[in-house]
Design goal:
mainly beta; elongated
Length: about 240
C-alpha cells in the first residue's frame, strides 16, 4: 500500500485531514495513509457536522427499502446485464445507493456482490439499480437481492448502539454535507466510557453515550486497543484497527 501524505505537500488527494470541503476531491471510501502509518477513509458527512474524536457510522439501514427479510424480489437478469430491476415497489431517493453495493442473497447468483452505479428516485415504485459490474451468474425470479449505501456516504454519529457499520473517527469538524477524512487506523484520541486498561480491546458502546467507545465485550465491534489507561467521559488514546 502506497502511503500518501495527507497534510503536507505534495497531496495526491488535494485535501488534508483537518479540512472540510464542499467539493468532492476523492472517491467516497478511498483509503490513504499519512507518512507515519495512520489510516484514513474519505467520507461525505450527513446532516450534522462532525465532532472531533467521536465514533461515526454509516447510514442506518431501512429494513423495508434496503434489506427486507428474505431480500427484494427481482426480474430475471442475464449474464452480462448491468441492471437489476425489482418487482416489488419501494421508496428511494435518486442515487441514494450510488457507490454502494448490491448483494444476491438467495440463489441463483447468491454470494455475488456488485457495485451500484446509480438509480432514479422511486416512491412506491419498482427500482432499477444500474451496476458498475456486469452480472456474473444469471438472476431469475427466484433470486433475491439486498443493497447497502456506501458506509462512508452520509456518515452520522454512532447513536449509542451502532445501527450500521462503523466508519471511523474524524480528527476535526467536518461541516454537514461536506467531505473530509475520518481516521480508521493508528493512534487516535477517542471519547471513552468505562474503565480502560492499556493493551486491552476497545469496542463500540452498546446502549450508552452517543459517539463513545467502551471496553470491548461480546457482540460489539472491535475499534482498536488502548495505548494508555482509559478514563470514563474523557478522550482515550486508542490504536484504531477499523480499516
Amino acid at each position: 500500500m502506497a502511503r500518501t501524505s495527507l497534510n503536507s505537500a505534495p497531496q495526491i488527494f488535494g485535501q488534508d485531514v483537518f479540512t472540510s470541503s464542499s467539493t468532492q476531491q476523492a472517491d467516497i471510501g478511498a483509503y490513504a495513509e499519512t507518512a507515519d502509518g495512520r489510516g484514513w477513509r474519505y467520507a461525505l458527512v450527513g446532516a450534522t457536522s462532525t465532532i472531533a474524536g467521536q465514533v461515526y457510522q454509516g447510514k442506518a439501514l431501512d429494513a423495508t427499502n434496503d434489506q427486507p427479510s428474505g431480500g427484494h424480489a427481482v426480474a430475471a437478469a442475464a449474464i452480462g446485464a448491468t441492471a437489476v430491476v425489482t418487482t416489488a415497489t419501494l421508496t428511494v431517493t435518486a442515487d441514494e445507493f450510488a457507490g454502494g453495493y448490491l448483494a444476491v442473497v438467495v440463489t441463483p447468483g447468491q454470494g455475488y456482490t456488485y457495485k451500484i452505479k446509480g438509480h432514479l428516485a422511486a416512491t412506491a415504485a419498482v427500482v432499477t439499480m444500474n451496476l458498475e459490474d456486469p452480472i456474473v451468474i444469471a438472476l431469475t425470479t427466484a433470486s433475491r437481492v439486498i443493497w447497502v449505501q456506501n458506509t462512508y456516504k452520509g456518515i452520522v454519529i454512532e447513536p449509542g448502539t451502532p445501527t450500521a457499520a462503523i466508519a471511523g473517527v474524524p480528527n476535526t469538524i467536518i461541516t454537514n454535507a461536506q467531505y473530509g477524512w475520518v481516521q480508521t487506523w493508528g493512534p487516535c484520541s477517542v471519547l471513552f466510557t468505562g474503565t480502560g486498561v492499556a493493551g486491552k480491546a476497545v469496542g463500540s458502546l452498546s446502549g450508552g453515550t452517543s459517539g463513545s467507545s467502551a471496553p470491548a465485550i461480546a457482540a460489539t465491534n472491535i475499534l482498536g486497543y488502548h495505548m494508555a489507561t482509559g478514563i470514563t467521559t474523557e478522550y482515550s488514546m486508542i490504536h484504531l484497527t477499523i480499516h
